[in-house]
Design a protein that fits this description.
The chain has twelve helices and twelve strands. It is α/β, with parallel strands linked by helices and about 350 residues long. The chain has two domains: about 200 residues, Isopropylmalate Dehydrogenase, CATH 3.40.718.10; about 120 residues, Isopropylmalate Dehydrogenase, CATH 3.40.718.10. Strands 3-4-2-1-5-12-11-6-7-10-8-9 form a twelve-stranded mixed β-sheet, with helices on both faces. Helix 1 links the parallel strand 1 and strand 2. Helix 4 packs across helix 6 and helix 8 packs across helix 9. The longest helix has 17 residues. The radius of gyration is 20 Å and the shape is elongated. The termini are close together.
């Protein structure tokens, strides 16, 4: 395994969830799993307590980001936050919300300042943050605002779920299903697919990305008999994209575009709504899919699962998705060094 020049910045996530568990477990198998060096933005005492709770003997070293690579083989590098975290596994508290947000903001700032190569985020509890005054729908939107803050750049962050067999983007994300039809517009499809095409080329190294676009209605509308969005909105968007030289295909019936043979015909799928994208990805790769945010001036990945409060501190949490997130972040940020 070749070493990267800069370590990955891993956020604390919701401290009452499985974030600390999978962080510790990932470092424990760093050699066997060829995990690239990372440091955690977290309260070191939290990690020490969770390691003891899990029965893991893991040395923890407080460092500056630049020193993380040098000590990674011998100890888990930790960059402390501005205060202590008070938490018990499985018992979330709003008192830690500010530190959860601080961890994310600091990770992004470290990348901007050239102190880290990419951001990898542990799962957060949206409800806990909402109850504490957090006004963003989720991680993705917050990360987009941080791009504006630190890069002075307006961006449109896009959620991509990536597994070994399938990459998929939901066109609409955390909105009620009843609102989806009016949110799916020709302009949205075009702008999102342009951005997806750009990142597939520049980040993923796919020279001519094949983008499969799902229909909204059953059987992609069945010629208009089951809905007209495919005729009135999706097909015109695809025609425009193709006129620009983008290999956009569809609209395809969502019930047949995710089987094994169909997956070989495209590089990334664009779904119309959240579950249309996430169900096939999680079915095919529940334990190893990665959430990637496209459209940002920096690389961000995350495990494709939540806080899992019910198993926090029980030793049942799998680190596989976090390990996949770290590997992919390293590959996207500094591919020549991985």
């Amino acid at each position: 395994m070749r070493r990267v020049k800069l370590a990955l910045a891993l956020t604390m996530g919701e401290p009452a969830g499985i974030g600390p568990d999978i962080t510790l477990k990932t470092w424990k198998v760093r050699f066997e799993q060829a995990v690239q060096p990372f440091y955690v933005l977290c309260d070191p005492e939290l990690l020490k307590a969770r390691a003891k709770h899990l029965g893991l003997k893991i040395p923890i070293k407080v460092v500056e980001p630049e020193a993380a690579c040098d000590c990674f083989d011998e100890a888990l590098p930790v960059v402390p936050l501005s205060g202590p975290v008070q938490v018990s596994p499985g018992a979330p508290s709003g008192t830690n919300a500010a530190l959860v947000i601080e961890s994310i903001e600091t990770a992004v700032r470290h990348v901007k300042d050239g102190r880290a190569s990419a951001v990898v985020t542990n799962p957060i509890s949206k409800k806990i943050l909402y109850d504490s005054g957090f006004h963003h729908p989720g991680h993705t939107e917050f990360l987009g605002d941080l791009a504006k803050t630190y890069w002075d750049k307006e961006v449109e962050p896009i959620m991509l779920l990536a597994g070994p067999e399938l990459m998929a983007v939901p066109l609409t994300v955390h909105v009620p299903f009843v609102d989806v039809p009016k949110l799916v517009t020709k302009d949205l499809i075009i702008t999102r697919c342009r951005a997806i095409n750009k990142d597939m080329i520049e980040r993923f190294g796919i020279s001519a990305p094949r983008i499969a676009i799902a229909g909204l209605n059953p059987h992609a509308g069945e010629g208009g008999s089951m809905g007209t969005e495919e005729i009135e909105t999706i097909s015109p968007a695809i025609a425009q994209l193709r006129s620009e030289g983008i290999d956009a295909r569809g609209p395809l019936p969502a019930d047949t575009m995710f089987h094994s043979e169909a997956l070989d015909t495209y590089d990334v799928a664009v779904a119309m709504y959240h579950d249309q994208a996430l169900i096939p990805v999680k079915t095919l790769a529940f334990d190893e899919a990665v959430n990637v945010t496209l459209g940002l001036p920096y690389v961000r990945t995350s495990p494709d699962h939540g806080t899992a409060f019910s198993i926090a501190g029980t030793n049942k949490a799998s680190p596989n998705s976090l390990m996949a997130s770290l590997r992919l972040a390293a590959a996207l940020a500094q591919p020549e060094l991985v």
